[in-house]
Amino acid sequence: MALEPVLIAGEWRQAANPAGSFAAIDPSTGKTLPEAFPVSGTEDVAAAFRAAADAVVALRAVPVENIARFLEDYAARIEAGADALIERAARETGLPQSPRLRSVELPRTTNQLRQGAAAARDRSWCVATIDTRANLRSYYGPLGGPVVVFGPNNFPYAFNSVAGGDFVAAIAAGNPVIGKANTGHPGTSRLLATLAAEAARAAGLPPGMVQLLYRTPPDVGFQLVSHPSLGATGFTGSKNAGLKLKQAADAAGKPIYLEMSSTNPVFVLPGALAERSAAVAKELFDSCAMGAGQFCTRPGITVVPGGAHGEAFITELARLFAAGAPGTLLGPAGATSIAAALDELVGSGARVVAGGHAVAGDRAAFEPTLLRVPATTFLAKPHALQTEAFGTVNTVIVADDVAGMTAVAAALEGNLTGCVYSDTTGKDDAAYAQLEPVLRGKVGRLLNDKMPTGVAVSPAMNHGGPYPATGHPGFTAVGVPASLLRFAALRCYDAVRPHRLPPELADRNPTGKMWRLIDGAWSQQDIAG
Amino acid sequence: MALEPVLIAGEWRQAANPAGSFAAIDPSTGKTLPEAFPVSGTEDVAAAFRAAADAVVALRAVPVENIARFLEDYAARIEAGADALIERAARETGLPQSPRLRSVELPRTTNQLRQGAAAARDRSWCVATIDTRANLRSYYGPLGGPVVVFGPNNFPYAFNSVAGGDFVAAIAAGNPVIGKANTGHPGTSRLLATLAAEAARAAGLPPGMVQLLYRTPPDVGFQLVSHPSLGATGFTGSKNAGLKLKQAADAAGKPIYLEMSSTNPVFVLPGALAERSAAVAKELFDSCAMGAGQFCTRPGITVVPGGAHGEAFITELARLFAAGAPGTLLGPAGATSIAAALDELVGSGARVVAGGHAVAGDRAAFEPTLLRVPATTFLAKPHALQTEAFGTVNTVIVADDVAGMTAVAAALEGNLTGCVYSDTTGKDDAAYAQLEPVLRGKVGRLLNDKMPTGVAVSPAMNHGGPYPATGHPGFTAVGVPASLLRFAALRCYDAVRPHRLPPELADRNPTGKMWRLIDGAWSQQDIAG
């Protein structure tokens, strides 16, 4: 059987000496889908880097307007091709066509592409900084090498290696992308890359601007993240895979941005429990169950004070979990992985109070599962009891009081998010003041009275956080234009003659609207000659 | 003999179970100075991290105004104590008291401290970003753990672990600092830390705000950069030491910013050679000889076209190098290290055309040394021929033409700086257009007709560059406020109640002047209620 082609140097071609092949699986039936995709070896990687290096050179003569047009045209092509994309992604991931894929994720993806286009055109993202007295001018520019993007299994569009947030950020910052598809949805990735390649050609971008490989053996993956001509890597996926890639990238001195794992703790303060326990339980369950719990921002830990209110909250939550319909997981490995995580949690002292088993049959599914554990037990084994179970699974940690809840916060690993629910009339303010400084240091995004599962694409978003949620606490994977800075190098021009400056640093504001930091003040003006 | 005390938790105390002791050496005489300093073991490291963790907690209640006052008061104390500082640093480093230490480096250091104070007070550095519609607000805040600073040997004040650029950046961003003194000037570091501790106490900062160790065995150094409660590390020093520390920090998921090595290539285009060969040679020699060539931005490679003009340039340069007085090196190891680097360069095909030997006697010194090598030889062994010789040493690479010069640029490793000299009337513009895009990707700061040795403390400075000049191409070690972002974490507030927001993110502008990015526009205004 012929293997599906890879996209290298603007051409769909057969993988050179593939190291094997694989197929996607429909998680709703357990059946293997017909197309066979190649596992790429070193030759494909070398060819992709050669084409990317050519693209880096060619891009020097390409106006940013073409990059913006590419992103917009690509968004339009995704909308025009939505039916095929939705059908394919639903088959490969088990995610509902509607509303999830059609009304939520696809519009989010095209919105990101258009925000990236706006950022590329606007150019304010590059933080042009000009010291007129010293005649020093600096800004963020492309890395000078391609960005390799590893997409996760849980967002076939919005985090796809050739369409998602890292892709948009890398392209908008002026870098070519080598996409490493998630092996769960290779067909969706192929459809997207087809549209991307067409849009890139139409916009006059070089053939190596967008490339796609589906899978590599581990050692070839290490080559991807450590290649001498690489700019940087963006990775979203498991901590296990992420840390191995990080080791290879670090040894080569190549930046790698990792979004790896997060238990997204939710703290419910005593007053909130007294005031609206059932409502919080409902919000929490809905947030845990969304997308069958396979969101990086799904709450995996809840921290409550014990006593009558705490017990009532857990009882209500257990009722919701027990009554919840098990969603289809993204792949057959999902249930095995959840079961292994539960073994670790239960083996460390947590107790299952709802669910706990895989759903029998061909469909990949696991019962919504609630566990509980005393804070004292958690504090004795904080590492094991933060094992991420990627599904509708939540562990309620029961503390004696707010001091105990704060001690739990102090024992948390780095997380993407942390939520605090408190009484609406201010009764919890003292407790909040005790807890917040500790929790603040553990999370990238702190929420009040709100679940973390929605990640708005906003300039003020932080989809990042302290290690091991990510690899660096200063960067966000979501939010334009901040996410672009991951894929940019700081470039300074010292006494460079005016006609040799890039337009972003010239006296004349290149768009008339670009924000630049001129002699300490942000301005959209030209510099007086 | 009693050992000099370390500074831990605000107290000068004897090192606990020191792993040994060492003394500084006066490089102008080769004589050991009288004071003995301890080599700290794990107990000192643990105690310093405990005090730093306490400081992180205490700092939550300290207004930024106190941090600003501390930095200003510290600068004033350095000025008041200048005589003792200058006498001590001159003895430990061999650097001239005047003008270098008194009129250049000390004022630069106090200027950096005052710029840090202004940045802390102004708060614009933290890039407060507010999306009023989504009610998302984010900014950069302290790391939640101390910053360990390793100072280099070549700037006893301006890059000192308890007074220099990394120190200022870490403190101004709100983090405590654990200084690891350079072992070349422990006495200078002790004097500075004494002033810093007094100023910190006077400003009401916690006792763990500034701490000082002098030296550690390598394994204890790895503990410093990988400690669980560490925020990040700033390191300036050798590539060899930096890469080992990077490995330990990377494995622990701890950010480390390294400024390691750079040959700072200077390209002299044909027209510039024809126009002002002797003047460029003079500028180049002066830049190479400044501080006995021990600057991270000292030009180590010059690239010229061959032919009559090129040969005349080399002849003039050789004359200047041969006539140059050998400056005193920072320590006795300096001459050995230069000799080893020359062996590598000569063994790889470079030829010595001036100098080449250590100066006989007790003073640490090496003759100004010029080498030459054909571009074809360089391109055959580009790695070995970029070996850094930390002194007044320069290798002239002779290319056939501009294409050959560009090929040399393409074979360069990452550098802090790169300079291009060109004809003043525009005759070199085509050559510049050919060379610049290649060189641009290899350097953090690109200069025209100017040597790189001066590093202005400006918001538009980039004292950084691609690996292995530094560990990350997106950050600068010099320049306030940009250098602060290395020591900051991105913190997002999602629907957090208004009275719980940090002042930087409240509707009301906390200073009336702080720049904030509100709904896509930079503003110093309040947000309308």
Please describe the structure with a list of short key phrases separated by commas or semicolons.
5-stranded mixed β-sheet, homodimer, 529 residues, alpha/beta, 7-stranded mixed β-sheet, 37% helix
Tell me what the structure shows.
Two copies of one chain form a homodimer. In chain A, helix 2 runs antiparallel to helix 4 (97-122) and helix 3 (82-93) crosses helix 4 (97-122). The model of chain A has no long low-confidence stretch (mean pLDDT 97). With 529 residues, chain A is of the alpha/beta class. Chain A has helices at residues 42-59, 64-80, 82-93, 97-122, 165-172, 186-202, 218-226, 239-251, 270-289, 308-323, 333-347, 375-380, 402-410, 429-440, and strands at 6-8, 11-13, 20-22, 25-26, 31-32, 37-39, 129-131, 136-141, 147-150, 177-180, 210-213, 232-236, 256-259, 266-268, 301-305, 351-354, 369-374, 393-399, 415-421, 443-448, 489-494, 516-518, 521-523. The longest helix of chain A is centred in the first third of the chain and has 26 residues, at 97-122. The radius of gyration of chain A is 24 Å and the shape is globular. Chains A and B meet through strand 7, strand 8, helix 8, helix 14 and strand 20 of A and strand 7, strand 8, helix 8, helix 14 and strand 20 of B. Strand 20 of chain A pairs parallel with strand 21 (488-494) of chain B.
